[in-house]
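Q: What would this complex look like in 3D?
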Amino acid sequence: MAIEPTGPRPRRNFDPTRIMIYSVLAVAAVYYLLPLWVMVMTSLKGMPEVRLGNIFAPPVELTFEPWAKAWDSACTGLYCEGLKVGFGNSVKILIPSVIISIAIASVNGYALSFWRFKGSEVFFTILIFGSFIPYQVMLYPLVIITRELGIFGSLAGVIFIHTIFGMPILTLLFRNYFASLPEELFKAARVDGAGFWGIFLKILVPMSPPIFVVAIILQVTGIWNDFLFGVIFAGTKNFPMTVQLNNIVNATQGVKEYNVNMAATILTGAVPLLIYFVSGKLFVRGIAAGAVKG
Amino acid sequence: MKSIEIKDLSLKFGDLTVLESLNLDIIDGEFLVLLGASGCGKSTLLNCIAGLLDVSDGQIHIKGNNVTWKEPKDRGIGMVFQSYALYPQMSVEGNLSFGLKNSGVPKAEIAERVARASEILQIEPLLKRKPAQLSGGQRQRVAIGRALVREVDVFLFDEPLSNLDAKLRAELRVEIKRLHQKLENTMIYVTHDQIEALTLADRIAIMRDGKVQQLDTPHGIYNNPVNKYVAGFIGSPGMNFMPGKLNGGGTPQIAIKDLNVDLSRYPFANGASVDGADAWLGVRPEHVSVGRDAAEKAFSHEVEVEVVEPMGSDTLVWTTLAEQEFRFRMDGQKDVEVGEKLNIGFDPISASLFDMQSEDRL
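A: Here is my prediction, written as structure tokens for the whole assembly.
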């Protein structure tokens, strides 16, 4: 006799759909994690052990020497001071670039969504169109522009470039977010006598942490991982970490120190990784919070 | 004294004309309701008065000042929105005082005004809460309070009760009416709900396609609609419309199919019936009498009950009169069966006649 259905529907723990989903996920995870495994293992071995070629095997003799060397004394071109110089430079480029680009883009997005002016749509289209042109096309003109401005080969130069190239995507991001906020809120603030900046700073910005977090994540990872603008516009003294990493890894003299290269690469990639780990939850919560009406 | 004067106001978005040379005078202390179907321009008009939309032509005067080019904050208005539009990150107190802080009112006075407004609206226990922690009715009260603290001459309401459930809507409706009786401010209230309009208004302006169709007291609009649109818009269930031909002469009549309705008691606008003109006869379902009362009316006829809709206090009956659908309302306590024959009647004095072409009242 069949059981009379009552209460919660019984769940099968191993139905075929679940098995499929988990096996696909497991394969994908292994596929992406394997290179990282190899990198971490290699960076913890001494050179004799690396030469044995067992790239998947964990180290027999654990050593942190390659990490210390990569950070402190690996040779990047002429100087042998390790990646720490590049790290410092990257931070010096990153912080002002992120702050300036987000500050300008959020105001742009606000103006484009609430203070529509004649031709604002055209302006927005042009801005978005700019993001489809390959960067390489614009390099030479930008070199000349920054040279004329007197900021070529300096921190200011590379910050200027990052701010410009962050503009299209960030403006789009902010415009769309602000456009999703109720227009009546904006009207109410106008009746209450708040002006352009009053509405932005007192009403909209406090409502928008999620989108600012998204923008920060985008910009931090984008600017930290940048190589092209750093190598062209920053000048030799201000080379960011990515450029120095390249100089270490692609050194043509002496022995290839795979363990040091691996350690240096992980160090360089640590910042974006950290951002994702720390903000992952915030990121999701931010998106979810935006979806629910207050 | 005039509180608000709107002179030849037009608003165009490109080729689209939303408001067309609109004129409206609102008396000091009046409760005016702008009523119309969605898209008729009533909210747009309110936004123009508030200064949230720039007009294409014409002038707006508030309290004798020409405010056509003034910012919303300088017009002496307070506004309440449908979605409440409370600032979500501020407490109730912050919401109430935001406008006052912006205009540089001294702290002591802000506290005093917030205290007074929250007392009137009974939101004192909520002052420290955030909008997200309030119910819909409480939120709308805070939104009204935000207009109240500004101590302005004119209050603008943009469908303030549309987001509330039926019970709360009825409660807040009375509260708004009380508030108006207490403050005696000029209030302009936009709604698409005719019950709100009829219950709240001193005068109602019925709008359609950016024009005011009729501006009159609720009584006048209900009893003497100027055209067929207004007649059909006001009243629920809607008015019955029957096409017929007018007969002039000694006893004016309208012939609807094989039915003749005596119009000698109908107050014609120009004094007399036009012989041979096509017209609509409009009869409100609630003006129809049944049974013994019907026989005493100027017009009575026997009909067969087709559909019965009991609504508690009264019952709506669908039937056929002169080969077309006819609804009437009867006492909810009486039993009516489908198929039953009833004698119904009405008095032409409470009916309306509209010209077939222009649809204007005759």
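A: To summarize the key features: Chain B has nine helices and 20 strands. Residues 246 and 265 of chain B are 14 Å apart (CA to CA).
Q: Very helpful, thank you.
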